[in-house]
Here is the input.
Amino acid sequence: MHAEVILKGGLERNGPSSTRTAVKQSRDTTSDINPDLWTLTQAADFLDVSRKQLLDLIRQGDLRYVQHGLRIRIHREELERYREHASQ
Here is the structure.
């Protein structure tokens, strides 16, 4: 399996506006890559925000993520970093 690391700001080759966010709900229920890489649903629950708000944070470059095909995953440590920063 190949996982593409997406840096803050989105896809390097196409710019931040090309971030794909179409993730089917049925495929976004478990993390099949790594238990420390969380689905959008898990990440939104952790941050206590909606999936739409989470996607907005990703589009704004506030959260780094990993994209595997159309699936977006966010590392647990990145979520903890963001939550700590947001609470200050």
About this structure: The beta strands are 4-6, 37-38, 65-68, 71-75. The helical segments are 40-47, 51-59, 76-86. The CA atoms of residues 9 and 62 lie 8 Å apart. The chain has one domain: 4-86.
